[in-house]
Design goal:
CATH architecture of the largest domain: 3-Layer(aba) Sandwich
Structural class: alpha/beta
CATH topology of the largest domain: D-Maltodextrin-Binding Protein, domain 2
Distance between the termini: 54 Å
Number of helices: 13
Number of domains: 2
Order of helices and strands: HEHHEHEHEEEHEHEHEEHHHHH
Mean pLDDT: 91
Low-confidence stretches: 1-27
Strand content: 15-25%
Shape: globular
Number of strands: 10
Length: about 350
C-alpha cells in the first residue's frame, strides 16, 4: 500500500513540476510579428531596427521579423498574401490598393510631413513649375507615381504632350546624365546622392510636394481590416506600436547611434554610418511628433487632406471614391497608450 502511495505522490509531483515548466515556457513564449518595409535597410526605417536592437520588442514579449523591401517588392502584395502582419507604405499606394480590393487600414502614421520632392538642375531652365512644360521629368513608379500624377494634373500638364515622363529607376542617374531636367528625390536620400555625385546645391532647384500643396502622407503602418476584429491581434499590434515608437524616439534623439544600428542591419554592406546619420537627421525633420504623446497618431485632418489631394487628379484621380473613416483606425494606437 505504501508503495502505491509513494508512486502516486511521485507522479503527482512530476505532474506539478511539468505544469510549472510548461507555465514558465508559455509565460516567456514570444508572439511573432512580421513587418514588411517599403525599401531596403536605411535610416528611413531606423525606428524598427533600433527597437529590435535595443530589445524593445523583446521587452513587450514580441519576436519581430523585419523584412526589407526593394524595387521588386510590393508591401501591398506581401500583406495581401498573408506574409506580413503589418506593412510600411505610403498612403496613395495604400488607398489605391484598398479601392482595388485590398482592405488596408492605416493604424499609425510615423512620418507626418512629406519628404518627397522634384530636384532639377538650374541649367535645364527650370526655375518654377511653369517651366516643367516641354521637359523630361523622372518619376518613380510602383505606387510612388500617384502624388506626381496628381500634381501634374493640377498644373494642367498632359503626359506626352506637355511633359515627358521618364520611368525613373531608384537612382538619380537621369539627372546626372542629363536625360531628365528633374528627377524624383527624397530629402533624406536621393537628393544627397546628387550632391555626393559632385553637383553643388547652388546649382539645384527643389520643389517639395509639401510646399506645392500636393503632399500626401508617406511612411505609415497598415494592417488588413478584418484583423482589427480580433482582440488578440489588436493587443499584439499595440505592443508592436509601443516598442516601435520607443525605437523611433530613440533614433530621433541619437541619429548616430541609430545609423550604426541600421548599418549593422544592412547585409549588403553598402550602408555607411556618415550617410545613414545624415539620412536620419533629415528623416527626423519629417517626424514632428517624435518624443511627444502624439507619436504615431494619424491626425484625421491630415488623412482627409491626403484623400482630397488624391481625388483631385482631374481625369485621372488616384482614387475615385472617398474611403471615409474606414481606411484609418486609432484602435491599435489607443491600445498602445494604455500600458
Amino acid at each position: 500500500m505504501k508503495k502505491h502511495v509513494r508512486l502516486s505522490q511521485c507522479l503527482t509531483a512530476a505532474a506539478v513540476a511539468m505544469s510549472f515548466a510548461f507555465g514558465s515556457f508559455t509565460a516567456h513564449a514570444q508572439e511573432k510579428v512580421t513587418v514588411q518595409l517599403k525599401w531596403v535597410p536605411q535610416a528611413q526605417f531606423a525606428g524598427y531596427y533600433v527597437a529590435a536592437a535595443k530589445g524593445y520588442y523583446k521587452a513587450e514579449g514580441l519576436d519581430v521579423t523585419i523584412k526589407p523591401g526593394g524595387p521588386d517588392i510590393s508591401p501591398v502584395q506581401v500583406i495581401a498574401g498573408n506574409n506580413a502582419d503589418i506593412v510600411v507604405n505610403w498612403m496613395p499606394d495604400a488607398l489605391a490598393a484598398r479601392e482595388a480590393g485590398v482592405p488596408l487600414v492605416n493604424v499609425a502614421q510615423v512620418f507626418d510631413r512629406s519628404g518627397l520632392m522634384l530636384t532639377c538642375k538650374k541649367a535645364s531652365g527650370v526655375a518654377s513649375p511653369k517651366d516643367f512644360k516641354g521637359k523630361t521629368l523622372g518619376v518613380w513608379f510602383g505606387g510612388n507615381e500617384y502624388p506626381f500624377l496628381n500634381w501634374m494634373s493640377k498644373l494642367g500638364y498632359k503626359q506626352g504632350t506637355d511633359i515627358k515622363v521618364l520611368k525613373q529607376g531608384f537612382n538619380v542617374d537621369p539627372l546626372l546624365q542629363n536625360q531628365a531636367a528633374c528627377v524624383s528625390t527624397m530629402i533624406y536620400n536621393e537628393y544627397w546622392q546628387i550632391v555626393d555625385a559632385g553637383i553643388k546645391e547652388s546649382d539645384l532647384v527643389t520643389f517639395f510636394y509639401e510646399d506645392q500643396g500636393v503632399a500626401s502622407l508617406e511612411d505609415g503602418l497598415y494592417v488588413m481590416e478584418p484583423k482589427l476584429k480580433d482582440p488578440a491581434f489588436v493587443a499584439k499590434m499595440a505592443k508592436f506600436l509601443r516598442a516601435t515608437f520607443k525605437g523611433w524616439n530613440e533614433a530621433v534623439k541619437d541619429p548616430e547611434g541609430a545609423a550604426k544600428i541600421v548599418v549593422a542591419a544592412d547585409t549588403s554592406g553598402s550602408a555607411t554610418v556618415p550617410v545613414q546619420k545624415r539620412q536620419m537627421e533629415n528623416v527626423a525633420k519629417l517626424i514632428k511628433t517624435a518624443n511627444t504623446p502624439k507619436m504615431g497618431y494619424l491626425e484625421p485632418a491630415a488623412y482627409e487632406r491626403t484623400v482630397k489631394v488624391l481625388m483631385t487628379g482631374g481625369s485621372s484621380p488616384v482614387i475615385k471614391k472617398d474611403p471615409g473613416k474606414a481606411a484609418m483606425s486609432h484602435v491599435i494606437w489607443e491600445a498602445s497608450q494604455k500600458k
